[in-house]
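User: Sequence recovery, please. Input:
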C-alpha cells in the first residue's frame, strides 16, 4: 500500500510541476497577460504538417521542470481570425511568446527542439 501511495505522490508532484497546456480562451489569455505570467500562444491547424511536427516537441519542452511556470495556449488557426489579425499572424505554426504581458519573441515554422526551447525560454528570462 505504501508503494502505491508513493507512486501517487510522485505522479501528483510531477503533474503540478509541469507547464500548463490548454486550448486558447480569450478570457484566460487576457487574465494571464494582465497577471504578467509567462505565456506562449501557438497558432496551430489540424491540417498543418509543421504544426503536427511542433506539437510533440512543445509538449516535451513545456513538460521540463524549467518550464513549469509557462502556460502554452493553443489557438485554432482557422477559427481565431480576429486573434490572428490582432497579432499580425499570417501563417499557421506561428508561436508568440509573452513575458510581463508583452510580446518578447515570435517564430513561424520552427520544428527544431533547440529553436523551440530558446523561443519558449524567452518567456522566462
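Assistant: Recovered sequence (125 residues):
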Amino acid at each position: 500500500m505504501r508503494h502505491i501511495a508513493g507512486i501517487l505522490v510522485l505522479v501528483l508532484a510531477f503533474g503540478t510541476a509541469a507547464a500548463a497546456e490548454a486550448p486558447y480562451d480569450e478570457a484566460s489569455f487576457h487574465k494571464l497577460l494582465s497577471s504578467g505570467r509567462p505565456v506562449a500562444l501557438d497558432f496551430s491547424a489540424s491540417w498543418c504538417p509543421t504544426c503536427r511536427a511542433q506539437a510533440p516537441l512543445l509538449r516535451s519542452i513545456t513538460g521540463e521542470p524549467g518550464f513549469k511556470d509557462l502556460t502554452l495556449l493553443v489557438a485554432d488557426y482557422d477559427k481565431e481570425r480576429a486573434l490572428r489579425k490582432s497579432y499580425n499572424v499570417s501563417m499557421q505554426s506561428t508561436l508568440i511568446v509573452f513575458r510581463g504581458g508583452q510580446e518578447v519573441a515570435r517564430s513561424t515554422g520552427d520544428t527544431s527542439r533547440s529553436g523551440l526551447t530558446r523561443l519558449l525560454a524567452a518567456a522566462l528570462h
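Confidence is low (pLDDT under 50) at residues 1-18.
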